[in-house]
Amino acid sequence: MKLKLLLAGLLFPWISALFGQQNEGIIYYNETYNMHRSLPPEAADMKAMIPEFRTQKNELLFNASESLYRNAEEEDEDEFNDGGGMVIKMQRPEATFYRDFTGRKKIDARDFFGKNYLIADTLTTGDWKVAMDTKEILGYNCLKATTTDTLRKREIVAWFTDALPLPTGPAQFGQLPGTILEIDVNDGEIVIAAAKVEFKKLKKGEIAAPKRGEKVTDAEFQQIMADRMKENGGRMMRVIRN
Description:
Blueprint: E1 3-4, H1 15-19, E2 25-34, H2 35-38, E3 53-62, E4 66-71, E5 78-81, E6 87-90, E7 95-100, E8 105-112, E9 115-122, E10 129-137, E11 140-149, E12 154-161, E13 179-185, E14 190-199, E15 214-216, H3 218-231
Parallel strand pairs: 9-15
Antiparallel strand pairs: 1-10, 2-3, 2-14, 3-4, 4-7, 5-6, 7-8, 8-9, 10-11, 11-12, 12-13, 13-14
């Protein structure tokens, strides 16, 4: 049986009490991308030139009222050569996701096709459906939740635990009654999995909202992405051949 999850606006005052003494720290995630599945059909011949999977490390800093998801390491540009003069350069766009749960706001800094955007908006409830399926991740009992990315037509599965009651998670994902420890987009196209949960005292100001980029609302950024996808034939990726 699946239940439609509705989160009330007054969900969060009890979070600090539930955390007890372990109310801040860092969750380390591995993000794995299936590069072959991301290629458009006209670039299928490039599969032999690039690895099928690419993994990067990220971290989620959290306390009783805020969270910040960011890169955990400097990102190098990967370069692949087919030996015939064609070179493919790959570098992930920078992205930082800040959540203020008491103030009910979110601020994301995202590099989209070479332009920096600062997406500031109200933190709203997600359209999640919670199932009765369970799974253990890093010793935490997790429940399954699903949703659909209607813009990019992607099915998303989240595994969250109420043992960590802050409604946050990796990247833009969150707004469940617990912290998301794993995300699966389109059955393995993207998998974001927690590798370690570390409770520790964070430095003052370590969780801070990003400030760089052209300020837009969430709806405006969704429209920017939709327009770009239309230009690229319904895909976020564009392949340019010399």
